[in-house]
Amino acid sequence: MYLIGENLNVMSKTLGPAMKERNAKPLQEMAIEETKQGMDYIDINIGPARKEGDKFMEWMVKTVQEVTSKPLSLDTTNPIAMEAGLKVHKGKALINSISLVRMEEELPFVVKYNCDFIGLLWGREGLPRDANERGAIAAELLYTANEKGITNEKIWFDPIVTPAVNIESNHVKPCLEFMSMLQDLAPGAGSAVGLSNVSNGAPNDLRPILNRTYLMMLMKYNIHSAIVDAFDQDLIDIARGKKPELVKVVHKVMDGEQVDSAKLTSEQIKYVKTVKVLLGINLYSHSWLDT
Fold first, then answer.
1. Cα(25)–Cα(44) distance, integer angstroms
2. How far is it, in rounded angstroms, from Cα 115 to Cα 274?
3. Residues 6 or more apart whose Cβ sits within 8 Å of residue 61
4. Residue 164 and residue 278 in contact, taking contact as beta carbons nearer than 8 Å
5. Bond prior to 169 in cis (omega within 30° of 0)
6. What are phi and psi of 194, to 5 degrees?
7. What is the pTM of this model?
């Protein structure tokens, strides 16, 4: 599994100002730390960057690649800024991301700069309602990419994770359903998720267990990559296969098997409770671990 460090983000309260002020030192320090943490890619999220986005992205790519050899995931909705970053990127970059509304403009970048891309399953009318709508969007994006000579292996489909705390628009299960049918739809294609989205809105102390649990749930369907907090060591250990017994318990719950709490560790019990919340078996509340 490829891990993409999410920490260089213009929305960050600490690093956002440094990005806007072109203050290289804290950004390079973060890139170095993300590299030490074993990230496979480093995401550079500059947001819409409407004003001089091309210069902004070019500066960010050059600044980060001065201190790390890791490939970068370039994250912006500004196509001009995206191409500016691709032009100066050393090695093979990752475009994060291309949706239906931007595919005609940005898919040629994949060919021109020989990069992979995250295919964001955001429809022309917004967030897809279920797995089938995600499949339809993926099929259109796949067909268009293939027509341009882009192979399935260069596409990492992102089914769009939404916060589990919002009961009315919880898309945890539809994302899992889409993942279960991805290889039938697009053999050889990859997948990607913005993992931290699942815990948006939850108290800070509860966000890590939501993120880790959902990663394990996605691992049942061979998740290809995840955009993650580079400093959650337990999450990294899970992704690197260092907690197989924990993953096994999570998958048992997903399969509807009964698990004997008396035979579980206290850590495993917490993850069992969290799986049930994410699956909608138990209702979300900030105190789900205490019940």
1. 15
2. 36
3. 44, 72, 74, 85, 88, 89
4. yes
5. no
6. -85, 90
7. 0.97
- What is the separation of C-alpha 212 from the centre of its chain, rounded to a whole number of angstroms? 13
- 168: exposed, middle or buried (C-beta count within 10 Å: 0-12, 13-18, 19+)? exposed
- Among residues 241, 190, 206, 242, the alpha carbon closest in space to that of 41 is found at 190
Helix (H/G/I), strand (E/B), else coil: 90: coil
CA distance linking residue 138 with residue 178, whole number of Å? 10
Tokens 């409770």 appear where?
Answer: 273
According to CATH, the topology of domain 2-240 is: TIM Barrel (3.20.20)
Query: Does position 128 have pLDDT exceeding 60, yes or no?
Result: yes
For the stretch 196-238, pLDDT in tens is 999 999 999 999 999 999 999 999 999 999 999 999 999 999 9
Q: Which segments of the chain are extended strands (E)?
A: 2-9, 41-47, 72-76, 94-98, 116-120, 155-158, 190-194, 225-228
